[in-house]
Amino acid sequence: MTSPSAPVATTGYPWPIETTRLANGLRVVVSEDRTAPVVCVNLWYDVGSRHEPPGQTGFAHLFEHLMFEGSQHVKKTEHMKLVQGNGGSLNATTNPDRTNYFETMPSEHLELALWLEADRMGGLVPALTQETLDNQREVVKNERRQRYENVPYGDAWLRLLPLLYPEGHPYHHSTIGSMEDLNGAALDTFKAFHQQYYAPNNAVLTVVGDTSAAEVFALAEKYFGAIATVPDIPAAPDGSLPGPATEAVRESVTAKVPAARIYLSHRTFPFGTAGYDAVTVLSMVLGSGRGSRLYQRLADGARIAQPDYIGAYGVDLAHAPAPLIITATAKDGVSLETLEAGLAEVVQSLIDEPVTDDELNRAKALLTTAWWRGVSTVGGRADLLGRYATQFGDPATAADRLPKWLAVTSDDVTEAARQVLRPESRVTLTYVPGEPS
Amino acid sequence: MSLVTTRPGTGAARPYAFPVIRRVTAHGGTIIAAHLPGQILASALLLLDAGAARESDGREGTATVLAKSLEEGTRKRDSAAYALALESLGAELSPAVDWDTFRVGVSAPGPLLADAVRLAAEAARTPKLDPADVARVRDDEVTALRMDWAQPGPRADAALRADLFGAEGRYSRPLHGDPTSVAAVTVDDVLAFHEAWLRRPGVLVVAGDLDALDLAALAEAAFEGTSGELLEQSGPLPVLLPPRRRTILVDRPDSVQSTLRFGHRAPERATPDYVPMTLAATVLGGAFTSRLNHLIREVKGYTYGIRGSYAMSRRWGRFEVAAGVQTAVTAPAIRDTLGEIARTQAEGVTEAELEVARSWRAGQLSVEMQTPGAIAGALSTLVVHGLPDDYYETLRTEYLEASVEQVSKAAAEHLAVDSLTLVVEGDGAVIRDELGEFGELVDSDI
């Protein structure tokens, strides 16, 4: 059996897409697919931790919690009860760029989902009480303990961000934010934050699945049409940077961890650019799968890294050069220095050794499967279209991403590596086992 | 201009149907395939009757070491060539071990699935298993387990399992073994496990657009060259409950949270009470608005999340509650949790709560079964537990028709708050004294 080259894809989105915009500025995206009796309703709000001014870090994420606690016509706890009690799955996430909310429902409950989303877009503030705020602040503190503080290496991302982005940059602080900021703010400050950013003209509503564009457009008008436009929403601070960092930065942590671990990180290009497409392919060649250079050379070859804990991945942020993160964990008896030298050598190989046809085909085949897996659910598709509508102004451009990945050449990867992976632009974060100092 | 004040009604529901199932028997094995028209990706999962239950005493983790050794090269190609061949199809191998089966899964674009299954079978049936490679994989697995056991949770899970299944041999030890048992696994153990169990045909479940898949070719790829009869199955274990509650402390100095794992034994997956038990657990701790999550997270703010559920395999089941709570509120969180379990056991569920649970569980059969991977998983449940092809349609109907009386009866019969083992993994120096109120307290030796 020969290994075939990656399958050709001329589009990454072979489903229909229809769009409209309500008079209040809400953009509506619909993609009909009658295969299964399910429908996903997804809202992207263009507000993330990058919008938070000093003293208000963690606000965007706290809102992700408050949005489930009731609104003008939806009682506290009713939101979850109505979605799950009608067969649906729901969640929400916050990152530096934006906040998204989504529920996949049996399609006969489409109208319910739209009503719930409209009520918390236009009617959250009257229902927001001090008791709810206090309770959800406690839940967020528990989230911080569970996800960042009580697990070995759990704070790596919190440490990497300020090393990657300078003071004052919109990506400098983490999404979970500062507990002092959350504690210090009054109820009215939170209400003002919602009134500022949770506006129809700052959101994209995407509906994918067992429905039609005509039905969704009419329902969007019915439920969201009355919500007022918010004028002059302030833009996030400018995230542009003059180029890669010019001085290497290092932080060494001694902590209760089971083995020495290294994170190398570089700022690359914003998600959505040709440069970031090359970095996406590069990260697969470098660190995804057993055929990657990191696995082949450090886990399988030199055997200095633990095979289960080695890899590289980009964090798909669109409003400033996005980070590439490379990580490896030392095997027993291997020193941090040995591991770091090995990692540096493999990273340097992307500049010095051209990517072979086999490596490139492997990377593209894995990206192809990952792409189709991502769009195999109505929820995956809705989030994708919401992203491209919010960040690039046109959901239909989502179809171009896979063909653009497949068009990346070996030279493109080398050129990207040459630009962004130089040692002098590197952030190095190391953990060694021991009592925290 | 204002928001619409009244909640909209429900539209017309489309009838529920699980994908059409086709079967092919060839080369000694069986393919069970679900048709998903228009899907670009396809998934295949080889199910072998070689779960962790077949491991020897003191060598728990043998099957996991074997699973991780399969990609260290085959009789045809070395590990680097194997990785390149498989990953160039866009596929990655996911060998996994559970209590009942050894599973080797692959997903790929439909036209490439047969090649991916051929490679998966090559690794499963004819791995090289060079002794030096197996020994290295074993050592790496010991290290990986130590990494995992440094997280909160695995030690508490092991302590609970040891207490609930202390008399049941293999079931008293962790699914993937522990650092000590894996370190004791020999190369011969791994070779013998492969020889005994992985050369049998087994079952291949497939999910994808069957119009574009050649099931005969898949059967040949999965089963050619295999031999062996179906293995005899052992019956379910009795549900033994201790006469009183006990608390086990797993010390984790300086921990900012206490990890709670409460449990007792319950019937196996094929129990006729499966539907009412599942609905009772959904009301107690399954849905976001469940009694436990509502009280402990939403009202008290003690946790980021708490869940209660039944976990079930072919021969046994157990009820379990899992949560991480802030260290300072460990005792109040335990008290409230026990209170909700006791209330559910004694008083059952209400119609309002059950209505949420019914509709959620029924709706999830559509909402959470959209992908080839999810459908392949659903098919594997049919295979492992001997359920009929129309099982999911029946299950949906049973969920929707379950009454308050049936579910309350299941709660009364299958919850036992006074027989719970309470495992608490946290900062012993801070929490030990307050754990005394919950019954006999012992220190875990794990």
TrEMBL record, chain A:
GO terms for molecular function: metal ion binding. The lineage of its organism: Bacteria, Bacillati, Actinomycetota, Actinomycetes, Micromonosporales. Residues 187-367 form the Peptidase M16 C-terminal domain. Belongs to the peptidase M16 family. Pfam families: Peptidase_M16 (PF00675), Peptidase_M16_C (PF05193). It comes from the Bacteria. Residues 28-146 form the Peptidase M16 N-terminal domain. This is Putative Zn-dependent peptidase.
TrEMBL record, chain B:
Residues 34-149 form the Peptidase M16 N-terminal domain. Residues 185-358 form the Peptidase M16 C-terminal domain. InterPro entries: Metalloenz_LuxS/M16, MPP/UQCRC_Complex, Pept_M16_N, Peptidase_M16_C. It comes from the Bacteria. Pfam families: Peptidase_M16, Peptidase_M16_C. GO terms for molecular function: metal ion binding. PANTHER family: METALLOPROTEASE, PROCESSING PROTEASE. This is Putative Zn-dependent peptidase. It comes from Actinoplanes italicus. The lineage of its organism: Bacteria, Bacillati, Actinomycetota, Actinomycetes, Micromonosporales.
